[in-house]
Amino acid sequence: MSTIPSHLKNVDVFISEEKIQSRISQLGQEITNDFAGEEIVVIGVLNGAFMFCADLIRQIKLPVHLEFMGASSYGDGTESSGQLDITLDLKKSIEGKNVVVVEDIVDTGLTLKYLLADLKNRSPKSLKTCSLLHKPSKTQHHIPINYLAFEVEDQFVIGYGLDLAGKYRELPFIGLYRGE
Ligand code: IMP
Predict the structure, then answer these.
(1) Residue range 42-65, pLDDT digits in tens
(2) Second label for 9, Cα 20 to 30 Å away, from 38, 80, 119, 126?
(3) Considering its fold, how many domains does the chain have in total?
(4) What are the phi and psi torsion angles at 29 (to 5°)?
(5) Which residues are near ligand 1 (CB < 6 Å)?
(6) Catalytic residue among 85, 107, 154, 163
(7) Residue 77 lies in a domain
(8) Domain CATH code at residue 116
């Protein structure tokens, strides 16, 4: 019988690997249909969206130029600090391009609001948003999410790119942390 590694004893599976992958395949299909015959720039927001982004672009059957931006509003805690740090910027211009920004989770909406305002100023042809998760009950800034994988309640989730103080990003599923 396999044993659960000790660092996962306080983690429950919330959204399984299979569910995530099947939803991503649908989203990839939607994006492929919406941009048929065009190229897109996918911007993954680091660190949380790296895994989602990697799986999503494999399901987009179009030419994709991948970029990353680094942004953080949480420090080491579980509540937003209300300030956004841009830690990494784009390498190439997005002027005249179709852009899809890929987030791990939209919580208050602050991160996405800030990023969208910044990216709009760079004159893309189109600008769409995609997020793995959304917590509607926590929304403070109403930003449309054009491609959303799952809605969740106001619970702190980890895994599949999402962290708690830098831990648990490597999990292939989305989990709930039960505390110490
Ligand atoms: P927002 O700016 O409040 O929308 O927060 C967005 C960012 O907060 C996300 O990109 C995550 O990095 C982080 N975040 C929000 N909720 C969670 C959570 O439940 N687990 C892990 N990270 C979270």
Answers:
(1) 999 999 999 999 999 999 999 999
(2) 80
(3) 1
(4) -65, -45
(5) 48, 73-74, 80, 103-111, 156-158, 162
(6) 107
(7) yes
(8) 3.40.50.2020
